Amino acid sequence: LAAQTAPPSPPSWKLVWSDEFNGPNGARVDSSKWVSETGGGGWGNDELEYYTSRPQNASQENGNLVIKVLQEKYTGADGVTRNYTSARLKTLGKFSQTYGRFEARIKIPHGQGIWPAFWMLGNDIEKPGWPACGEIDIMENIGKEPALVHGTIHGPGYSGGNGIGAAYELPGDQRFADDFHLFSVEWEPNAIRFYVDDHLYATRIPTDLPQGTRWVYDHPFFLLLNVAVGGGWPGNPDPTTVFPQTMLVDYVRVYNRTISLTPSPAQH
Fold first, then answer.
1. Catalytic residue among 49, 140, 169, 186
2. Is-catalytic flag, 135?
3. How far is the C-alpha of 242 from the C-alpha of 257, rounded, in Å?
4. Catalytic residue chosen out of the listed positions 135, 145, 169, 186
């Protein structure tokens, strides 16, 4: 087992997809890479935000993606009215991949009831549905835990509150909202490793699953970035929560492991 769970050495990665968010200030996100999900129906978690496709909630600024949570009364095309707006971006239909290294450098927002996430879903979600498609949460934070992030897998028989997760805590009095941090997973057949700033803090393998459940991480997954407000896990904002809140994403990068570690003739 030790050989299975230890990170492969030496790591050798080839960049296959990225968004550096270097568009002009105020530009919308690149629609060739991202889809804006919209709606205010609670998203299965009793959330309070309405996700819009407006640049007020997601745009590029100074080399970052800015997802901005606003406290405002907003009624969407579906007739749902919410008191907060935010954005939820996904690469479904634009990019998905099986295995590799998936990373993002993010400065998260903060405050009671604020719930930022960088995560992945199986791209067959519309067929077997969730959680049979599989979910890999690379980074989630709930505002009441300023120094903690969570990495979790969800699948059939181990989803929602029964997801298999681990937390990483910053040392000292640091808060994740005070600076950028690198959140990543390295995913290969029968292993998913979770990292913060290249510190390995959890490894998931099939024997971690509850008896009789399935490992569903052997097909393409797509990426998501969002900031939710309220819901069962973080709880709702309270008078201490300051708005607006922003999540800054410096980049998202996806790599494939290169099989051969010997230089090609072109490099000689």
1. 140
2. yes
3. 42
4. 135
Strand partners, 140: 117, 150
139-142: Cβ within 8 A, 24+ apart: 139/104, 139/106, 139/108, 139/183, 139/196, 140/115, 140/116, 141/108, 141/115, 141/116, 141/117, 141/176, 142/114, 142/115, 142/233, 142/234, 142/235
Identity of the amino acid at 52: T
Give the CA distances from residue 33 to residues 29, 145, 174, in Å, rounded to whole numbers and listed in that order.
8, 31, 33
**Look-up of token digits 């707006």:** 85
Q: Is the pTM here over 0.90, yes or no? A: yes
What are the residues whose beta carbons fall under 8 Å from the beta carbon of 36, sequence distance 6 or more? 29, 51, 52, 53, 58, 87, 88, 89
d(CA 152, CA 140): 9
Q: Residue 239's pLDDT is what?
A: 97
Mean pLDDT of the chain: 93
